[in-house]
């Protein structure tokens, strides 16, 4: 029978005692959401699963040091984020502009603002659909399909300058709706577009 923990203190207490049911509860509750989160950063399902597994192993090994943890959920997300940054900076797999956006993502999740993040993603999707037709097409070819400005210009039979103008226009419109959070939300949205929900 699956054990249910009604509050953080009870969960931390049982974890500290070495109760494996406490660890099982955490894994049942957070394993898939954490994998989805790390996958949204890395776009690599194997890496995401490895990172999350390592975090749970580390939590179990250091279960006697959980007194300072206010929120286990926040702690797990923070650990996954740090592990992702450490691994990918070491392997030099993050481009400079991506590092800036990933760092900004930390601000969105550090206070457990998952609901806020979801609302921002939904708002972004809505506002993209509301862009002027040519502007929307140009923007999606760039951000969703990953085409270069030259490829877009050839595909749409326009000049590169026109493409640049349409993308700039799209950013201006979207920034007016989302403010400074647009870059990390865009990064998360389009870095996750190939996600297969069955990989975890």
Protein architecture, described:
- The chain has two domains: 8-94, Rna Polymerase Sigma Factor, Chain: A; 115-191, Winged helix-like DNA-binding domain superfamily/Winged helix DNA-binding domain (Arc Repressor Mutant, subunit A, Orthogonal Bundle).
- The protein is 73% helix and 0% strand.
- It is built from ten helices and no strands.
- Residues 192-200 have low confidence and may be disordered.
How many separate structural domains?
Answer: 2
The helix tally amounts to: 10
Oligomer: single chain
What's the helical proportion of residues? over 70%
Largest beta-sheet details: none
So, CATH architecture of the largest domain? Answer: Orthogonal Bundle
Please count the beta strands (DSSP E, at least 2 residues each): 0
Radius of gyration: 20 Å
Residue fraction in strands: under 5%
Uncertain segments? 192-200
Structural class: mainly alpha
Global mean pLDDT: 79
CATH superfamily caption of the largest domain: RNA polymerase sigma factor, region 2, helix turn helix motif
Global outline: elongated
Write the layout of secondary structure elements.
Elements: H1 8-16, H2 20-42, H3 45-61, H4 72-90, H5 96-109, H6 114-129, H7 133-143, H8 149-156, H9 160-178, H10 182-191
Helix pairs in contact: 1-2, 2-3, 2-4, 3-4, 4-5, 5-10, 6-9, 6-10, 7-9, 8-9
Offer a few descriptive terms.
200 residues; Arc Repressor Mutant, subunit A; 2 domains; 10 helices
Provide a short characterization of the protein structure.
This protein has 200 residues and is mostly helical. The chain has ten helices and no strands.
């Amino acid at each position: 029978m699956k054990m249910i923990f009604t509050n953080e203190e009870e969960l931390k207490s049982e974890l500290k005692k070495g109760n494996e049911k406490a660890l099982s509860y955490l894994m049942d509750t957070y394993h898939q959401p954490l994998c989805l989160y790390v996958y949204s950063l890395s776009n690599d399902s194997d890496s995401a699963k490895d990172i999350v597994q390592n975090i749970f192993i580390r939590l179990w090994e250091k279960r006697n040091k959980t007194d300072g943890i206010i929120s286990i959920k926040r702690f797990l997300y923070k650990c996954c984020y740090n592990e992702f940054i450490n691994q990918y900076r070491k392997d030099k797999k993050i481009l400079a502009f991506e590092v800036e956006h990933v760092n900004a993502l930390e601000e969105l999740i550090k206070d457990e603002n998952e609901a806020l993040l979801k609302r921002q993603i939904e708002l972004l999707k809505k506002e993209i659909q509301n862009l002027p037709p040519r502007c929307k097409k140009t923007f999606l070819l760039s951000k969703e399909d990953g085409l270069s400005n030259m490829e877009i210009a050839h595909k749409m039979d326009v000049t590169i300058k026109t493409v640049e103008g349409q993308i700039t226009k799209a950013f201006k419109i979207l920034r007016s709706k989302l403010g400074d959070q647009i870059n990390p939300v865009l990064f998360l949205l389009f870095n996750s577009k190939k996600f297969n929900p069955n990989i975890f």
